[in-house]
């Protein structure tokens, strides 16, 4: 908090490293060898450096610019990465990236020169953002790529190489905190984070996502409510599958009726958010209908809860979001919420979609009911209401 003209104004710490721009993921899904060459103009890969530059520009040129403090990130070290990844995987990843030609770790996740330094810098920014949030007691955002939440201990997946949100959570624990919650609102299941903490009771992982199921050898997890964790971690993995078409109302209902009560019962010392914008109404990779108003609502909520439950220790890592202009608008709206702005500061030039929950209010109630049924034995709060 800083004093400006006699009023108190919130500010946000952001962590950034130019090396994140150097990862080239190749061409898009349409250019796979298996797809007939019918595109006259090739599609770029959705997870491009252009999207991260656009995100940064929205923040540095928009109305929040003077409330953002930018910090230089740094590459993560191998010992730091070993907290969530296997040594053999790190070795294979580096060899693939350093090879003479771009290498596909799975069909959509390609690495080449620049990918290893970019992945290290994204991970290092997430670690530094976590340190900042924990030590300063205020929110910090790692604006990075490649994204992280699909990366598993021994497996790249879905454009993700190193699991940045898991590294942020692990950093918070290493700094002496005892309970960390990870909330993932990327439109895809946070399967990598789930896998890393599946048997760990100190980390509550909650993923809000569209119902998409498993998608191949790199992504065997289904993201269904019955994947609740195992062993000592049973009950500490929460998958909230939302129906296709879910919009602002569904996401905020899921937060208010399920996420907030769970977090209150878990009492985290820090909250890590895997922050994707591919749930937006216009994303090419998602089938949900969230608008900037919905992301602003999420920002307001996570800030309020982190302040109330976790001493302000809130760290966010950038995940997906692929219609880059609209995703940048959604990022701006989220940051508005994080900084307590209840009314949008930038007009949304596109949003006109009806919110399906207004005409079908039982649908999200049904989706949330499935999560309650899966976890009621573990969380008294889920037996009520
Ligand atoms: Zn995604």
Structure overview:
The protein is an alpha/beta fold and 385 residues long. It has a single domain, classed as Histone deacetylase domain (Arginase, Chain A, 3-Layer(aba) Sandwich), CATH 3.40.800. An 8-stranded parallel sheet has the order 4-3-7-12-11-8-9-10, sandwiched between helices. The chain has a two-stranded antiparallel ribbon with strand order 1-2. Strand 11, helix 8 and strand 12 form a beta-alpha-beta unit. The protein is globular, with a radius of gyration of 19 Å. The relative contact order is 0.14. The N terminus is likely disordered. The site of zinc ion has 7 residues, from loops.
Topology of helices and strands:
Blueprint: E1 2-4, E2 7-9, E3 12-16, H1 49-61, E4 68-72, H2 78-81, H3 87-98, E5 103-106, E6 109-111, H4 115-136, E7 140-142, H5 164-174, E8 180-184, H6 191-196, E9 203-210, E10 237-242, H7 248-266, E11 270-275, H8 292-309, E12 314-318, H9 324-338, H10 356-359, H11 361-375
Parallel strand pairs: 3-4, 3-7, 7-12, 8-9, 8-11, 9-10, 11-12
Antiparallel strand pairs: 1-2, 5-6
Bound molecules: zinc ion.
The site of zinc ion (ZN) has 7 residues, from loops.
